[in-house]
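Researcher: Going back to the complex we discussed earlier. I've cleaned up the inputs and rechecked each line, so this should be the final set. Can you rerun the prediction on the complete assembly and write out the structure?
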Amino acid sequence: MSLDEAGLDRMQRQLQIFASELNQVMARERERREEAEGALQELKNSYQTMVRTLAMVCEMKDNYTRHHLDRTYQYATALTRRVAPELVEDVRVGYGYLLHDIGKIGIPDAVLNKPGPLDDDEWKVMRTHPLIGYQLVTGIKFLGSAMEVIRSHHERWDGRGYPMGIAGEDIYLPARIFAIIDTFDAMTSDRPYRKGRTVAVAMEEIEKNGGTQFDPDLVDAFIKLCTDLKLVGSDASGLTVVR
Amino acid sequence: MQRRRVLVVDDDDLTLDILRTILDLEEFDVVTARDGEEALGFLAADRFDIVVLDVMMPGLDGFAVCRRIKGDPQTADVPVILLTAKDRREDIEAGHEAGAEAYLTKPFSPLALIETLNRFGLGRKRS
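Model: Rerun complete. Updated structure for the full complex:
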């Protein structure tokens, strides 16, 4: 096609319209994208708040576990970062750590806060909490894999744990991680009927149970984490920030 | 959802290219014709959802093509959008007399074209 002067002029006016409409469309798209991103962020924040609220309700009910939640969440996240960094990106894993004991809502106070060791029947009741928790959150779609942490954090590497008695790598990795952290925190925390043990004693106990109660590779990584963080000789229950 | 078919008639290659690009983006199947005779041939052979029609073309002009479309019971219900540099009042009236459903002037606004397609229920976001 050859363009004479009138043709050039027509083309120029056509292009001006295109340019101006392109700007309009792009501005509209940008606005829409910002709105969508804002809504998504808001939704994520709501999830975060909801999970934390749920977890806090649980913590309030359980006198023993004051600050247990913060500590275990942070230790578990630190260990996860070392052994499976890609899982740290998955918020659902974090949700699982925060909500691991959500099922304790269903445990009677007389058992949950008994000022002394539990008898056999009481232990039976206590051991229902992973399944109660699992059932509570089933159907909350966005929690996804968090449910596996809730259900499986009392499973043992050798298959002698509960509620399902699964073993080895059949146990969801974050649940295996959390089992170590949970035990460590329980041992180093004070209970109404006994003082918390020292970090060194707790580490020794965890190490001894590698390959039976715990995933031996994770135990190695955990010991190294404690060493790197110079936890020995410190009061682990006082540490709440681990990055 | 079935894609909508549009017939675009213009003797100017650049205009055809521009319209094809826009209508592609709007997810139409686009068929192009360079003159009125060719357009009527396509219309006789195939079903189209809408026609975008230039007026000033060699041979049959757009008004004549439009009258033929509207005069044939096979094609009378296919909406016709005239898209032309002829922007005087009597041109627009001639367009409506020829039976065209819409009249857009060149240089044309792509947004106005899309809006017109929407008006005929042919927009991308049909229910």
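Model: Worth noting: The interface with chain A takes residues 12-14, 18, 85, 106-111 of chain B (CB under 8 Å).
Researcher: Good, that matches what I expected from the previous run.
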